[in-house]
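Question (not urgent): is this output format expected?
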Amino acid sequence: MKLFQLTAFLFVFSALSSFGQIVHRNIKVHQIESKILNETRTIWIYTPPSDSIYHYQPKLPALYLIDGNSHLEYLAALNAQLSITSNEMILPPMVIVGILNTDRTRDLSPSHSQFGYILDPNFVKNSGGADKFIRFMGEELIPYIEKNTPSGTYRTLLGHSLGGLTVLETIKKYPKLFKNYICIDPSLWWEHQQLIPAYSESLKKNADSFNKFYLAIANTMSDKMTYEKVQNSKNLYDYHIQSILKFQKLLPKTPQFQSTYYPLENHNSLPSIASRDALKWIFNFYKIDTYGSNDAVSTFNPSIFLSNHFKKVSKEFGTEWLPLPTLVDFLSGMMLFVNPKQELKSQQLQKLNQENNFTKK
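Got this back:
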């Protein structure tokens, strides 16, 4: 039991990192006074460069990150690269909200654990505060974000480790709070796996309340263990992945749910890889392959193609989205580069910017 206690303790703290310094120029630090948590919370907020989005500041989708200081900077860079920097149309420009920790175990644990931990007997002393933390997100943080940033109601929640457990707790109690949920290597060993049946049932019960759920699983198996045999392992170091695989088997078998095992990633290396895959899957309706053989460049009427595509995007987001002027310019130039005889189609594309009345602020 002591070995398991030590293993569990290490997993709990594996997602922690130092605050460090913010490098990305579009990330700002905000302070929110929380009445629910009775403390001041530090929030990091990334917004896309103002000259890269629409002149009327559309309502952008928002990505909320538990353990924000661990994940926000690389996700901000990823979002910029796949939406703006290289004229890609893989992800939409997003507002990304990083929630920094004060008492991580308190906020991200769904129950007051009755089990102690060998390295720190006081570790679970304040556990069980996830409900208050989720209420803070829903009643204080989200209204603040939607008032002070160009974000709309299309929200995604991402959590890793204990944060993944909080994602599942949110679906269980407040499933409509977010449109999508990304759950990365969750700490389902909590309370000796006793919460797994309830979380599984809540996914089925509340499936109509959200759009998509993505589960990512790291390779945390003991030495010489295999994926095929790990469920029958008696090695306590395999207890973490056993709990997640047990939960994975109970996921609904519908396109709304996706789970992926990453054999080359461990608990700490997984978030950057899995979050990229999850976001690409969640926003697959947004993608236009600007370099592919079946993209807007080779479409018979590219201006109609883009207009129809963004009508679908607008329906998903619940607010009007129009083609980025930079995307229109890029595709127009690409058409002439591929085939100089496509000048008429190139001109049709350029008319889109005129029709949409784009002007820079």
